[in-house]
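Collaborator request, handled under Task 6.
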Amino acid sequence: MVCKNMFPFFNHYIIETNNMLLNISHWKNIIPAIGLKLGKFCVVGASGMVVDFGITLLCKEILHLNKYLANSLGFILAATSNYFLNRWWTFQSTSPQVVKEYSIFFILSLIGLGINNLVIFILHGKWKFNFYLSKIFAIGMVTFWNFFMNYFFNFQ
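Structure tokens returned to the collaborator:
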């Protein structure tokens, strides 16, 4: 009981958080909305995957750039096209702060790029999986990172 009395704000925060997490009607409204947005995000992501793979293939196989540089260029161009499509369709953002929104989206995408390259490095570089299969797995992982970070921290 001493801790409860010493930190009343913290205790109140824990009680409110628990009440929210246990409130089923709260989740009945949020889960379908998140699911719909995640579905749209994945459709946009599929278009981004075409951009990503196209640029990566062009840079790696035709221009003979380093595979990580080629991967990075594909990822960055895909992230840029994904921002505009997600802003308009997935999150329906009307914020006038486009530069701020894009900057946050791009920073989150760069962190995602780091995750993407790390996964490719482990799967392809260390475990000798096929480069493109490794890339598909990395894209899947980064999709969830990008969606939830943008959902909670960028497009409110």
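The cover message to the collaborator said: "The helical segments are 2-6, 8-22, 24-62, 67-90, 98-126, 131-153. The CA atoms of residues 10 and 131 lie 48 Å apart. Please let us know whether this matches your experimental observations."
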